[in-house]
Please model this.
Amino acid sequence: MFVTAGGMRMDYLITHAGEARVEMVGGNALYAAVGAALWSEPVHLWARIGSNYPQAWLEPLTQQQIGIEGLVRLETPQDHRTFFAYLPNGRRDDTNPAAHFARISHPLPAALSDYKHSTPGQDDPHNYEPLALRPADWPERWDGVTAVHLSPAALATHLSVPSCLRQRGIRQITLDPGERYMVPERAAYIQQILPQVDVFLPSVMEIRSLFGDGVDLGEAALTLTAWGARWVVVKNGAKGVLLVNGRSQTITPFPAFHTSNDPRLVDVTGAGDSFCGGFMVGLAKTGDPVQAVPYGLVSASLVIEGYGALYALSRKDEASARLAEYQNKKN
Model:
């Protein structure tokens, strides 16, 4: 059994094509779960949700081998909104929705009138925001599961949960850092996290936020291994990923499944999270990060060919053939 931990959200987004998509079921835990479920493996969500999170959004997940028993429903309503806009330069912005909706001549959704950003307080190492997972949330019945992936979350969560999982018999832990704490001022805390996990999976944007815009990605990843990371995977969108072995200090590039101008590309939301879910399954199946990367790239390729977190699950039967296609092309 596999577990993806993180957030369950209500997405409001502006795509790279300038299209508005509002009130969509989303969240990094769900996209990672979809990336894992594409390989026909049972996967369970681990996240906190408010009393106001729509139950109708959760029930269809169980039909897709995505378990919801690990969701911790709080007694109070919570803010599950996430907004982000993809910009013409390829970057993503998660603030000032009014300006972005005006840019595409679309009225601002009323639900976003007071929106700031989706991750307030996530750089605090000492306090958990209400939706932040904590060790006490772990279901004992999950002790010894095959693998857990920790999606971007509060710094307090990423500092405390990995050691708890080791105590619970979890042998494989992968972690995608939270963008709010990938800054120089939090470097000491990042160094505490890295030795606790098997693979660290930052995005190129997070690497640049931590080390500077002009940094060489490979050199930055090697610095992370010097800080204690065993393996680092730098996710770089249409340019693919870099895999860095902390022991041998080798850097292996992998191209993305699609080229940047592939007409099948529709919406890149969730690409990084679904990559992580596929990578988690590939690593458990093969025991080799080099062989696991193509699983992640295939998961991401299917997710970004449609809209919404659940779209790719309708194409689960294509995953194995696409994996063989990628491996043959790369070899």
Remarks:
- The chain is about 30% helix and 20% strand.
- The chain has a mean pLDDT of 93.
- The first strand starts at residue 2 and ends at 6.
- The radius of gyration is 18 Å.
